[in-house]
Input
Amino acid sequence: MSSLRISVLAASLFLILIPAHAAEKKSAMIECTPTDEKLVFDCMVMLTGKKSGEVIADAEFTVAADMPSMPMAHNVEPVSAHSVGNGMYHARITLEMHGEWVLKLEFTKPERDLVVSKLVFSKASVSPSDGHDHKHEHKKNKD
Ligand SMILES: [Cu+2]
Output
């Protein structure tokens, strides 16, 4: 009997903890462009609900960066993204080298969430990663 009561209690607690409408998965369109400063990139993030397509205008998140090919090797300080309205956010990131990076959007609002995106940063442009391993070159190429 008591175990039944406990599970009923657990079930009602569970209901209380769930927000009015469960958080929808986010879709983040990220576009980064090189700046005049070396290894500094301006990133615009467009946030929408994955299913609804509605803009998410009330988000708060930071952008962290990591190189998948070199775990722990880089230590890029996460930066806060700033809302520029209409579900668009701006963040200026400073990387430590060119190559493939994973941007991690760590949300505190509208709920805790993590969205990651792989991009290839080069001197002239930033493009989505094709998923293949890119050569990771800390050493200079020999001619
Ligand atoms: Cu590296």
Q: What stands out?
A: DSSP finds one helix and nine strands in the chain. Helices lie at 2-17. The pocket of copper (II) ion is lined by residues 67, 70, 73-74, 97, 136 (CB under 6 Å).
